[in-house]
Specification:
mainly beta, outer membrane lipoprotein receptor (LolB), chain A, twelve-stranded mixed beta sheet, 47% strand, globular, disordered N terminus, DDB_G0292248, signal
Amino acid sequence: MKFLICLLLIITWYNNLVQGQSCADTLNNLKAFQVNFIYSGQNTSNPFNNYVERDDYFFQSGTLIVDRVNNNMYVNYQFDTDYSFESWLYTQNNTYYILTNYRSNGCIYRFTPNVTPITNYTDAGVAMVGSIKSQILSFETPNEFDAAGLLYVDPNDCSPIFQNGKTQFGNSLVTFTNFTPLEPSMDYFDLPDACAHAHLIV
């Protein structure tokens, strides 16, 4: 569940704006996008140990597709290069499917809390990120996960550069590449045959 929480912090961006406009409004009106990410965190819970608090290092990388019009999310990713996952989140019925090579080597699903995308970005200044004068946007998650952080974006197209944040599990850093705005579509969220008889977990 921790990977879901971390990934929900990433839900942002849309690059259809006028040069020089604040990216906060653009991100708050996001419809759909695809982006690659690398997530790392320290002093966080171990996702494979029932979220027992421990001083740990957490790493994942993958691709995220979010459709905020139809309220769906797809992610493929790896944990520490040992375990691979594909996941589909359908917020209209609060179901979350995971196809993995970890333990079960199959497809499982669970019911999730009511998750609301981040739509409360506010301007928090500017900063140089390498040679890019980036806009800084602050945010808090509008749900029970109690997370907050800063998102650094390229002001030319509002594409994300990186994000730092703090959740109930610890601190995190996410870097982004290959941001692509998309038209909302259900085509990205078809479950594979392997999930036709997924096992419910609680």
